[in-house]
Each structure stands twice: as structure tokens, then as C-alpha cells.
Amino acid sequence: MTAPARYSLPEGIVGLKGPVDKPAPGTLPLRGDLAHVALADRYLAAHYVIPHVRTIGSAPATLKLTMRDDADEGATLAAGQEIELLDCAGDWAWITCGPEGPSGYVRLGMLAPGQ
Fold first, then answer.
1. Which of 20, 50, 76, 112 has its CA at 20 to 30 Å from residue 95's CA atom?
2. By the 8 A CB rule, do 58 and 115 touch?
3. Beta strand pairing status for 82-89 and 34-36?
4. Range of the domain at 86
5. DSSP per residue, 43-92
6. Can you tell me the distance from the alpha carbon of 108 to that of 37, in angstroms, rounded to the nearest whole number?
7. pTM exceeds cut of 0.85
């Protein structure tokens, strides 16, 4: 699988040199267990994922900072907007607009079907 054409993947041996600032929730696609593969040269995570390109469905989708309907909200994405799917858990999808974010959770039903 290859990364979407809008960014490049880190090449060669990837390593971190000293501490890095932790980004605010809802910004970069980075969790303790998983991160967008394009962040591998800047942030340490247990696993890195190559995202799947998907689309927001017919209604705008507001990102949640956790997998709960009553969670704090992040950015709102337009209907039909292309996004990157990073992970699914139950009825929730962890998505981002790219390696620089924003990122967050939406119900899987908010994504366009058939992709």
C-alpha cells in the first residue's frame, strides 16, 4: 500500500533526537499506540499506519476528541471532504485530514459508503 500522493513518507532509518512537545488533542494524528506514518520521523508511537483515503458522507461531520458522543468537539469537516482513515474500533473511526491534522473520531456512519 502506498501513501496518498499529497505527502511523502519518511525514508531510511528513522530516529528521534531528544524530547518532543506533545501536540494538543485533535491536532496531529498521533496517539500513544498509533500514529500517521508520515509522523514517524518526528514522533514516537508503538505503531504507524498508512491511512486509507475515504470521504465524509452527505452531512458535515464534527470530530470528537474521544470515542464518545458527548466528548469535546474538534474541527467540523464538510460533506464530501476527502479524509484519511487511520483506525476503526466498534462503530468509531479515527480520521484525519492529513499528517498535519486535524484528527479525531467520527461514527463510521458519517463516512461515505462503498469505499
1. 20
2. no
3. unpaired
4. 34-110
5. ---SEEEPPEEEEB-SS-EEEESSSSTTSPEEEEEPTT-EEEEEEEETTE
6. 22
7. no
Amino acid 66 reads: T
- Per the structure, the count of domains in the chain is 1
The three-state secondary structure class of 106 is strand
73 located within any domain: yes
30 exposure class (CB count in 10 Å sphere: 0-12, 13-18, 19+)? buried
Q: Which residue has the cell 463510521?
A: 108
